[in-house]
């Protein structure tokens, strides 16, 4: 399984009890494991690779847009 990075941004911290947040986190992890268990490992691997490629495509689009904005700012 791919290594997961720790989230540094905790949007619900201080808004709901820490115990509740821990239960939601545990439930999400168990649900993810159960869904992955329904599919063959090859599917899970392909799905992750496809998701990564989509994210890289979005990153590329954003980078291109930022470059156009920077060029337009330099002309102005």
Topology (SSEs and partners):
Blueprint: H1 18-38, H2 41-75
Can I get a quick summary?
With 76 residues, this protein is mainly α. It has helices at 18-38, 41-75.
Total of domains: 1
Give the % helix: over 70%
Query: Which descriptor suits the 3D outline?
Result: flat
Terminal-residue CA separation: 49 Å
Low-confidence spans: pLDDT under 50, at least 5 residues? none
Secondary structure: number of strands: 0
Task: Write structural notes for this entry.
Helix content is 74%, strand content 0%. The protein has one domain (18-75). With 76 residues, the chain is mainly alpha-helical. The model has no long low-confidence stretch (mean pLDDT 87). It has helices at residues 18-38, 41-75.
Properties at a glance:
single chain, 76 residues, mainly alpha, 74% helix
């Amino acid at each position: 399984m791919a290594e997961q990075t720790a989230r540094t941004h905790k949007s619900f911290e201080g808004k709901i009890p820490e115990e509740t947040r821990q239960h939601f986190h545990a439930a999400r992890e168990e649900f993810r494991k159960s869904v992955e268990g329904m599919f063959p490992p090859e599917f899970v691997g392909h799905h992750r690779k496809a998701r990564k490629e989509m994210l890289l495509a979005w990153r590329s689009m954003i980078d291109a847009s930022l470059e156009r904005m920077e060029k337009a700012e330099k002309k102005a």
